[in-house]
Amino acid sequence: MDLGFLLVQSLSGLASASSLFVIASGLTLVFGVTRIVNFAHGSFYMLGAYVAVTLVPWLFEFDRSPLLFFTGVIASALVVGGLGVLMELLLLRRLYKVPELFQLLATFGVVLMVQDAVLWIWGPVEISGPRAPGLRHGVEILGQRFPAYELLLIGVGPAVLGLLWLLMHRTRFGILIRAATRDREMVGALGVNQALLFTGTLFLGAFLAGLGGALQIPRVAVSSQMDLSIITEAFVVTVIGGMGSVPGAFLAAVLIGQLNAFGVLIFPKITLVLVFLLMAAVLVVKPWGLLGRPETAAGRAALPEGILATPRFGAWEKAIAGLAIAAMLAVPVLGDGYAVKVATEILIFALAAFSLNFLVGNGGIVSFGHAAYFGLGAYAAGLLVTKAGLPMEPALLAAPVAGAAFAALFGFFVVRLTGIYLAMLTLAFAQIAYAVCFQWVEVTGGDNGVVGVWPSDWARSRAVFHYLVAACCILGIWALRHVVYAPFGATLRAARDSEARANAIGIDARTHRWLAFTLAGGAAGLAGGLYAFSKGSIDPTLLAIPLSVDFLAMILLGGIQTVMGAVAGAAAFHAIKDFFMPLTDHWRFFLGASIIALVLVFPRGLGGAYGALRGRA
Amino acid sequence: MTLLAAERLNKAFGGVVAAKDVSFALAEGEMLAIIGPNGAGKSTTFNMVGGQLAPDSGRVLLAGADITGQPPRAVCRLGVGRTFQVAQTFLSMTVLGNVQMALIAHHGRTREVVARAEALYRNQALALLDRVGMAAEAERPIGELAYGDVKRVELAIALAASPRLLLMDEPTAGMAPRERAGLMQLVANIARGQGIGVLFTEHDMDAVFAHADRILVLVRGEVIAEGPPEQVRANAEVQRVYLGQSGHRAALRARRAAHG
Amino acid sequence: MAAFTLSRRAALAAGAGLAAGLRPGLAPAQGAPIKVGELNSYSRMAAFSVPYRNAIQLAVDGINQAGGVMGGRPLEFVFRDDGSTPGDAVRVAEDLLTREGCAFLAGTFLSNVGLAVADFANQRKKLFLATEPLTDALTMGQGNRYTFRLRPSTYMQTRMVVEAARGKTAKRWAIVAPNYEYGQSAAANFKKLIGGTIPGAEIVAEQYPALGRVDAGATVGALAQARPDGIFNVLFGADLTAFVREGNTRGLFERRTVLSLLTGEPEYMIPLGDECPDGWIVTGYPWEQVEAPAHKAFVAAYRARFNDTPRKGSVLGYVTAQVVAALLNKAGTTETEALVDAFPGLRTDTIVGSVLMRGIDQQSTMGTWVGETVLRGRTGTMRNARYADGADFLFPEAEVRAARPGR
């Protein structure tokens, strides 16, 4: 390999890094100040690109000049910044008093809505933006040709870094951002107008995302799937760098850019998993990212974000639970084949969601990768049936074992971390598991998956299989619920409420969390195994991020502060999706709108709303 | 009999010496206060005893057994209870639930999945709450309590493990003056009544001079004086670097209040 | 405006006439409709699937005006989004069969969805006409009695471009393909086939960027470094545009033979715009160059009704409806076993010519167009395009027998 190639390849890496940094810097700022895990950041990136491919050609009608190109890019970013403000004013502002995770759910609703809104406005065909005038050509560097526009992009990253540094150190707004990132309560105590600070930060964050998107238009085709392709990567960059750290994000982006540029030479399939491998490695060694700092322990005692009370079932609750179980058992008698199928799925998702809330609500362990254990359970069952020729019964036993085994393996590292870093490590492990299932074609069938995962003959009828699922899921939920009320469940809540106190009374919080992670993984694995048999196939989407996010949406819709909320959330989420999907191609828009409406009306989830109702009654 | 002995504890953070050759001993039923100006190394010393920090050198002996560098939960199991400067309780639980949790942990039953947590050790927990005067509030969520009451519950939590030694980091911080005396009196009664040693740090000189049997004065990580309150109060160096005239008057006032 | 109205009306008439040509002289269909459950990625892959659905509607309207199917019954497609995941798709398929009372299933876009629905159909013993999924497995290793495929598979399309490269001298080849089944199996097919067309050909570099996330700079750099004489490209959609732009600027395609799957389809040509590379050998659909009268009528009718040019998806949709109608007419019943027995060997006259459903692997002989890319005005199209009849590019029967024992 000659020097020119190495240099140019490294420049390619820097250009990617620069683009990634611009986007990630906005995300890290927003998280630092507001603690919002802003899924909609990718949507802002996409909107920046869409606005730019509309605006820049319009500006070119006047004059095809570089000045107007960059005017258009900046203007697009400003427009997106305005949309960020809109989201803050109309949505997030109403949610600052509820647990932080609900804001995540709200931004997820925004993601779904923006995806379909973009299809409505700009149509499904990808749009290639105009190239930047004067920067169309390639520049010769040591005998290699390199795009002039990318040379410019390489400069944009450090320029944004420098400007942000000036902003953070030379303006009152920036100093407040830094202060809020370090200690949010202090800024609140200083009498700063927090609402204005948050609005300003959302503007800046969305502006940077929009800028990142608008700058891409000479390079990529703008499509309605840009958001998902960037959002995980942006999160990875911010986490590797340390949440809230702009220089950290820069460092991480450069690292990823270079590793990718040279990694593809040795492992041509590396892009699928590279960033997640890097994130897992960094977090195992540096639990707060490269330049992040440990989250300051709350000075005042804050109410935990999770299950607050564990009341026993009263007469009403017993009646409702009884009715729900009776309804589930009656479906095969009263409903048609499709109703049975839907009911079966709701039961399976209820178990998976309940197991996730066992971690999130009861243990304070926010997992962004719970689908991994669901999917690995499904794969264990599916592969045993199709490859090892086992019947359904032993395969179904293997599903929770596999889910628990992998949860134990990954959980060993996961429970060493806390907060958002823990969540992102679960995501990294889930993506690594996903990549293995995706890539190991000989065994897993790759992304096509494996078909032929059907139940044993006795359970082949939809009704019988439904009863099998009902038995497994209702028993599973009942058992997990019992654990919540048992000393083990109480110990998890204790460790979540106050780690220092738990330690001081002799509790080994980490080991208990690890056991909880394993138990929840097992329950999710059982759900996954049942799901594989209900669908007849397994494939990597069962481990993928969208399903993990669906599970999160379910428990948040249901309310993470109540024990049984997750079950209601799973049913509601599935019912909404199933209602809109046959009605329109744009069902995601309505699903997103429904989620946002539910978050606004029931800011503590359905379970929380029910609790409030019962509290008054 | 010596319950706790610290032998030549040293700890430095970067170049800053936080504790230098700190040694002291504490007998059963004795209350030892560590005082000193801010940054004197009180918390560092305290945390080395409690297991939150490992000393660079030196030993901590509990009833003759070396517990140096053991993690807090191990130190707890050896019979050390502790309270925190900012009360640490389980906010999602009731007052009773908090104490029950401590009892469950003490009996090593945290991994049980069959029993119902709220049915375990109810009576013992109520008895502990009764000892700190909080039995009437047992069923309330702990988050609803006044801060002084939370501190009392925290004491009950610490007592749940039947400790031989109580570590109390600024036990009266954040409390109203009237509540402080009551809490310290309660601690003193329990300590002396059951032979529990109490090691505490404190800013409130009234509390220190009223209840401590002995006082350890730290300045810049070094012990500059140690002895009964009268002796420490009379120590010229202590008066100069730390107590000052106002502190001296406070000490006199406190003594009178306690004995009069 | 008047001219427009006139042309529109004329085109509609042409469309009706075209459809009427199937069953001349019949009154519009009456009675209970024959329902076909069509599930596809209408939300995620709208650029392809919406023109596909449009064309099905166009064709079905024509068929029904001309007397319907099975002796006068109207044909109806029930369209559903498949959610783009196997899990959702199987539930939707159940909905179509159970609630909507569809006689059989058709559609799907993604290969994993297609395979899952195929297996579901096999389990439920219902016919499934997979229209768009490309994976070879669907008719080979994982084929089943109830699953038929319309579109030319990955293997067939790869073979088409490889054979079009006959006579080229490029020996050193680089492969770039999206990292998923379609890309991997296209690459595998290419490696298997290229030696037969260009003796002594060797693979000197392979790049498999993640689907939808190509890092174009790094990928182009890695390919150029291997100094290939030819490049086999399987990237499509947004990845393709980013790759082509980067490659154009860096001169990757200069003096190199490029073979590329699907690139000539309007779905991918339109987003490329004036970046369209010159002289790539591609499969695609040069809709404006197809001269067959039936096809011209279809194009006119499609443009008139939807005010848009037809896409590859449109052709596929129209042919789907034609083949479905022919199948129902031949079987004369909606009973699954009769349909499955009637399908092999069914020959349908379609807007792309005669399409046969081969019995051995249940793969149709529908072909596609092969030619070279060229920029005309501000958008790309194809030159020297010719229709490659799928019949000439099917898997050899011996290979099918090896993959599907008992056939």
From TrEMBL, chain A:
Keyword Magnesium: no
Membrane topology: Multi-pass membrane protein
Taxonomic source organism: Falsiroseomonas selenitidurans
Record flagged with keyword Ubl conjugation: no
Phylogenetic lineage: Bacteria, Pseudomonadati, Pseudomonadota, Alphaproteobacteria, Acetobacterales
Transmembrane region(s): 6-31, 43-60, 66-92, 104-123, 148-168, 189-214, 234-255, 262-285, 319-339, 346-375, 395-415, 422-441, 464-484, 514-533, 553-575, 587-606
Protein name: ABC transporter permease
Keywords: Amino-acid transport, Cell membrane, Membrane, Transmembrane, Transmembrane helix, Transport
Main location per the UniProt record: membrane
Family note: Belongs to the binding-protein-dependent transport system permease family. LivHM subfamily.
Location(s) in or outside the cell: Cell membrane
From TrEMBL, chain B:
InterPro entries in alphabetical order: AAA+_ATPase, ABC_AA/LPS_Transport, ABC_transporter-like_ATP-bd, BCA_ABC_TP_C, P-loop_NTPase
Endpoints of the signal sequence: none
Keyword Coiled coil among record annotations: no
Residues of the ABC transporter domain: 4-245
Pfam families in alphabetical order: ABC_tran (PF00005), BCA_ABC_TP_C (PF12399)
GO MF entries: ATP binding
Keyword Nucleotide-binding: yes
Keywords, alphabetical: ATP-binding, Nucleotide-binding, Transport
PANTHER family membership: AMINO ACID ABC TRANSPORTER ATP-BINDING PROTEIN, CONSERVED COMPONENT OF ABC TRANSPORTER FOR NATURAL AMINO ACIDS-RELATED
The protein, known as: ABC transporter ATP-binding protein
Native species: Falsiroseomonas selenitidurans
TrEMBL record, chain C:
Keyword Acetylation: no
CDD domains in the record: PBP1_As_SBP-like
Domain of life (superkingdom): Bacteria
Keywords attached to this entry: Amino-acid transport, Signal, Transport
Record keyword Transport present: yes
PROSITE patterns attached to this UniProt entry: TAT
Positions of the Leucine-binding protein domain: 34-372
Membership in a protein family: Belongs to the leucine-binding protein family.
UniProt protein name: ABC transporter substrate-binding protein
